[in-house]
Amino acid sequence: MDGNSDMHDAQILIAGGGPASVATAIGLRRLGYTVMLISQPRPFSAVEGVSDRVLQSMKSAGFHQAIKTLAPPSPRNVTWNGLTSAANTEHLIERRLFDEALLQDAETAGVRVIRGRFRHCQAVTDGWQAEAESAAGESISVSGHFLVEARGRAAPAAKTTRVRSSETIALLQRWRGPADTPLAHSAVQSCADGWAWMAQLADGSRYLQLAVDTRITPLPAKNQLTDWCRQRFEQLHQAHAFIKNAEPEGEVYARASTQILCEDLIGENYIRIGDAAMAVDPLSGNGIFQSMSSALQAPAVIHTLLQKPENTALARQFYQARVEGLFYRFARTGRDFCRLEQQWPESEFWASRCHWPDDQPLHLPADPQQVEVARRPVIKNHLIEEADVVVTPDQPLGIWHVNGIELAPVMAQIKEKTQPALKTLTELFGEARGKMLGDWLKGQGLV
User: Fold this and answer.
1) Does residue 45 fall inside a structural domain?
2) SS3 of 30, please?
């Protein structure tokens, strides 16, 4: 650190540079805000996979350069409960390349990016005052009216109440082998006390990750971890293709994978997004997908807090309910996947994950008699407003639009008339569009 200092101001300060923070930053720039993003490169190499659904979200978010770093879709082999399948594909991402491309996308959108460490932040009269350290060691003072906390699981949370699942640690190590395949590919396999995810890129680099509960599976000393992980992977048939003619590079990196929900998500001039708000076990769904899910809503929430303060309570209600709803849906998805693994009924690892967070079904049964119209907060013209929505036990937050059609008035007309729902829909929207909406409503159990 050379002691030099510089001062920068922005309307919005964002701490963190992953997909959630960049999606939020670009969304805020589109709304006309000045945005400063402070991002520290991740300290380890990692690979993740994303689905085509996530790819579409990235395109909408403006990740033009970042998308170019994705590998073409490749197969993912899964061995679970003793059965092997290759039912889906994913795009593999080398996160260091992807994260740097994300920052380039942010800069192209007009976001001021500081590549460095967010050191300290405190609330002041008109917002937030923070200190950062650039990659060159320079001290930088930054200030803003609104703070977006997006430093993932590393975000400070000492005073925040959090919901936590069983503790999970992911042990990740990079391996190097021959470039013996033109396509990237990945695999998943369960074991008695955890599960493994393995990926190989076209250049021959491999990434092997083992998820365990250290309260159940004691780990050796740090200098013995590489050999210990190698022995574990040698016992998994899915891993053989990844470790053949390959050797580990560098140390094993341990990172927390416990599912966490922060209960203090949003205030009048701050918000937590991505993994800083909720972090799910990667087993239950794509990590980037869940972080993007909260981040794509954040710009409208922030815009409301800053431009329409009379709707502050509504905006906070909207965001809190959606993040909590997403968290429990992801958590229940992971729980149901764990329940499929029945090879080790005495395993504490699997038993503890088969009933968390609860025993509520992932999807509650639909019943047309339980369909109601209620007032709920929605995103309207980039602001949080109240509107009539259709509420069901499975969709307690409500459904506002379906393919551009406002649903509550349609359901009211269906209920008012004694004729079949399809006839009412055909009268309202024509035969083709009416049938499409009717099929959707029937599939959801709304009619």
Assistant:
1) yes
2) helix
pLDDT tens, position by position, 291-340? 888 788 999 999 999 999 999 999 999 999 999 999 999 999 999 999 99
Report yes or no on 131 lying in a domain.
yes
For residue 29, give its domain range.
5-73+93-163+259-338
User: What integer pLDDT is reported at residue 4 of this predicted model?
Assistant: 41
CB atoms within 10 A of CB 244: 11
278's enclosing H/E stretch is strand 278-279
CA distance to 97, 148, 251, 253, 299, per residue, from 100 (Å):
5, 20, 23, 21, 22
Report the number of distinct structural domains present in the chain.
3
Q: Which amino acid is at 354?
A: C
pLDDT tens digits for 208-231?
999 999 999 999 999 999 999 999
Strands lying side by side in the sheet with 185-191: 47-50, 83-94, 74-80, 185-191, 194-200, 205-212, 169-176, 247-256
Using alpha carbons, select from 348, 361, 362 the residue that is nearest to residue 168. 348
Q: Which residue has the tokens 């050796």?
A: 220
Is residue 116 within 8 Å of 134, Cβ to Cβ? Answer: yes
- For the residues 413-442, what does the mean pLDDT come to? 92
pTM over 0.90: yes
Same domain, 122 and 9: yes
Q: CA neighbours within 13 Å on the CB side: how many for 124?
A: 11
Contact 1/139 with Cβ under 8 angstroms?
yes
Q: What angle do CA 218, 220, 221 make, to 5 degrees?
A: 135
Say what angle helices 19-30 and 298-307 make with each other, to 10 degrees. Answer: 50
Tokens 């079904």, residue located: 361
* pLDDT of 129: 93
Task: Return the structure tokens found at 111.
Answer: 């976001």
